[in-house]
Amino acid sequence: MSPAIGSTLFIGGLALFLYGTQVLTDSFGREFGGGFKRALGRLAARRSGAFAFGAILAGGTQSSSVAASLAVGLVEAGLLPLSGALAAVMGASVGAMAVTFLLGFDWTVFSPLFLACCVIGRKLPEGPLRRASENFIGLALLLSGMALLKLGLGPLSAAAPVMRWAAFFGAAPAAVFLVSTLLAAVLQSGNAVVAVAIALLSGGLLPIEAVFPMVSGAHLGTSAPVMLVSLGTRKKNARRLAWANLLYRAGGVLASGAAWGLLSGNALLSAAPASMAPSLALGFVVTLNALLFYPFTGHFARVLERIPLQERESLAEPLYLDDAVLTLPAVALRLLSREMARLANFTDELLTRVLLFPGGTPRVDALRKDLPALAESCLDFMFAIPAPPEGDPSRTAYSVVSYALIAMRSLVSVAA
Asked: pLDDT tens-digit profile of 112-139?
């Protein structure tokens, strides 16, 4: 097999791995909807429960940013303190790391058969087998991508340019750390970088000394998606949590780096199977990170709350609505109620200004222009909330909020 074919298999395997991660996230969201996530929401009421909340959610979705988004929604709804959201972020790093131990096994023979069974199962009539196939096809794609990564490295390991590249990075741990950090940020997946590390180490293209810099860079780079999302949001808690996530992971990388050197980690890691070494190194980083920071979560939250962040007000854009909490109707209704209170305040301001200044002012013009858009956003969010079933305690609240919002939209239309 030529190096060109090996490169194609490697790149295709990485793409299949990332696609499998996305499918796994989507299937988790469909299968474990309202009831399961409501149970998680109740679990998050305590700090230890919030940690478990983040671990379970990130383990199922393979995305720590999903857990962070839901945690922000719970904070904004007043159901979770900021310290609980920080605990959820810590738990998310542990949950997302857990699947990397699966990647260390050889799935070359099993994964195509697993994928074929899932594809066939999706063609079956509606029933348990079909639902199981739809839920597991993401995992099958992920493992098949891992198998392709390893297959592609066979011919690549014989190519002279690749060997020179491996020798260069093996002698430059700082370069390995920077590249893996950037790769995790671009791919928005630290586990994809760990999968590449497993494949490279198994193929003899990555020295054992480069494993720790690579997985610690992946751990730090995973904070980039949450950080980028926070740049476009006006929610103070979301921005605080993004900075907390970055500082938490950076602190963990520094602490684990010092401990790794003191414990002669590379020597210990060389005794482990090559396919498991990156997962073990990442487990060391993530576990030490959580153990060091979890006891001080409350102090960390108080420091963050003192950061003077300003909410950038935009009349037309919602401040509290977040699509990530739509599967938690009780939380979504609380956030919608807060947004409706904001809409009511702006409507009252508009009516007062119109009465006091009949000639109009720039502020009145802005309110007349933007309030209808805000009302429509609230209405769209309300229709996106799954209607609670008969007998559900939140059904009454859903009806009350719905009627109140429709009446408020009519008032906004008249006032504007």
From this structure: 888 888 888 888 888 888 888 887 888 8
Distance CA 410, CA 416 (A): 10
Question: What pLDDT does residue 170 have?
Answer: 65
* Alpha carbon distances (Å) from 15 to 19, 146, 193, 212, 227: 6, 10, 12, 24, 23
Q: What is the pTM of this model?
A: 0.73
Cα(196)–Cα(194) distance, integer angstroms: 5
Q: What would the two tokens of residue 135 be?
A: 């839920």
Q: Residue 161 and residue 155: Cα distance in Å, rounded? A: 12
For the residues of 312-339, what is the DSSP string, one character each? ---TTS-SS--GGGTT-HHHHHHHHHHH
- Would residue 233 be called left, alpha or beta, if left means φ above 0 and alpha means ψ between -120 and 50 degrees? beta
In the chain, the amino acid numbered 265 is: G
Instruction: Please work out, in degrees rounded to the nearest 5, the angle formed at the alpha carbon of residue 224 by the alpha carbons of 166 and 297.
Output: 115
For CA atoms 400, 406, 410, 413, give the dihedral sign. positive
**For residue 409, pLDDT beyond 70:** yes
In the DSSP assignment, the letter for residue 2 is: -
3-state secondary structure of 45: coil
Dig out the tokens for 156 from the structure: 């690549």
In sequence order, which residues have a C-beta less than 8 Å from that of residue 374 and are 6 or more positions away?
315, 316, 317, 318, 339, 342, 343, 346
The pLDDT value given to residue 367: 84
| Residue 50 pLDDT | 79
DSSP 167-202: HHHHT-HHHHHHHHHHHHHHHT-HHHHHHHHHHHHH
In terms of pLDDT, which residue wins out, 68 or 233?
68
**Which residues, 6 or more positions from 171, have their beta carbon under 8 angstroms from its beta carbon?**
none
Provide DSSP, 130-166: HHHHHHHHHHHHHHHHHHHHHHHHHHHTT-HHHHHHH
| pLDDT for res 158 | 60
Reduce the DSSP state of residue 308 to 3 states and report it: coil
The secondary structure of 203-250 as a DSSP string is TT-S-GGGHHHHHHHHHHHTTHHHHHHHHT---HHHHHHHHHHHHHHH
Instruction: Indicate the SS3 state at residue 34.
Output: helix
Map residue 86 onto helix, strand or coil: helix
